[in-house]
Amino acid sequence: MRVLVLGSGVLGAAVAARVAARGHEAHVLEAGPTPASGTSATSYAWVNGNKKRPASYRELNASAIAEHHRLEGVERGWLVPNGHLEFASTDEHREELTARVEGLEAAGYPASFVSVSAAALLEPDVRVEPDALVAWFPGEAHCYPEVFVAEMLGTAGVTVETGASVVAVSAGGVELADGTVRTADRVITCLGRHTGRLHPDVPMVEPVRGNAAVGVLARTVPAPVRLSRVVTTESLNLRPAGGGALLVHALDQDPLVSPSDPVPPEVLTTLRDRIHERVGLPVALASAYVGLRSIAADGLPVVGPVGAGYVVVAHSAVTLAPLLGELAAREVCDGVAQERLAPYRVERFRLPYAPAAQMH
Ligand SMILES: Cc1cc2nc3c(=O)[nH]c(=O)nc-3n(C[C@H](O)[C@H](O)[C@H](O)COP(=O)(O)OP(=O)(O)OC[C@H]3O[C@@H](n4cnc5c(N)ncnc54)[C@H](O)[C@@H]3O)c2cc1C
């Protein structure tokens, strides 16, 4: 079978690998000049099932962490399985974190409280309030998405065509912006936030300043700081970015950036100040960028047949990619419907009382 996979972010790459692993031809069409030209290159890439709701979605994310391990993500270099520490110092955060850890523990998700001194053994250079409440999530990880994409696209049977912008999907293949066509037995769309352009039935959140689809990240220069894992605090989230650099995200800065403008100087100053406060050293930023999330209208993934094709799109896709790639390949290639995908069909967006003419 010849399968066209549209998009080469973490989802397209994972889908293509699982299709090819079954002995099928997986041809990836990517509009950008290189693979992973979209959101996957601008992700915090924390691999977790931590704040995911409802329970079935948390379980999907937890299974996806296991799938990263099953595909040998640690050995192949994309997964850093060093867990996650979260520090709460305000009353509101303490209360929320207490309830969350208790709920996760009860559900069998690895989560517990540790002392500040125990946390300091794990992350000696991170400065936190001495009376902070500390949660420890040992099963969580972070990912290097470009390494993941490279490993997936390197699977025997996967071919990649860059500079190939798809404008239409039909039963027998796709049409490109240059007017040429590519034929296939099946088409799987993994276009992230651009999914709605080819499949208007999939309602995506349009990234605009101040909404959940827009986030700002910064990468530091290499710094003499010991940091081994994802660390969450009220003022700053930080994790290793490779080679001694740090990747930082301050959630309260996200509403201050816009999808089309450079990161404002005052946001850069805030990020530098908070890094200094958290690691006790002034560390310069190497880059700062705005990332645009791919979020369907209700925040949950959309996976399954849509029109003449099959769509896979999700926020938290760095976490979910290995699992969604496998489940999609079982449905498209093996013809076996996956019960776990039932909550994520596009049909959920159709109101029962909507006249048929209003349905896309
Ligand atoms: C600030 C930020 C923080 C995040 N943090 C996390 C996190 O901690 N954990 C987590 O799991 N997730 C996180 N995410 C989300 C995660 O990064 C995304 O869900 C994921 O990268 C989406 O991957 P994708 O393959 O679906 O889309 P993309 O990576 O966007 O890939 C889609 C590809 O399709 C290509 N394309 C677009 N249009 C066309 C076309 N017409 N024809 C051909 N190709 C086309 C694009 O060039 C792109 O390469 C974060 C995102 C952001 C922005």
TrEMBL record:
GO annotations of cellular component type: cytoplasm
Alphabetical keyword list: Oxidoreductase
Domain FAD dependent oxidoreductase intervals: 2-330
GO MF term set: oxidoreductase activity
InterPro entries in UniProt: FAD-dep_OxRdtase (IPR006076), FAD/NAD-bd_sf (IPR036188)
Stored PANTHER family: GLYCINE OXIDASE (PTHR13847:SF289), SARCOSINE DEHYDROGENASE-RELATED (PTHR13847)
Record-given protein name: Glycine/D-amino acid oxidase-like deaminating enzyme
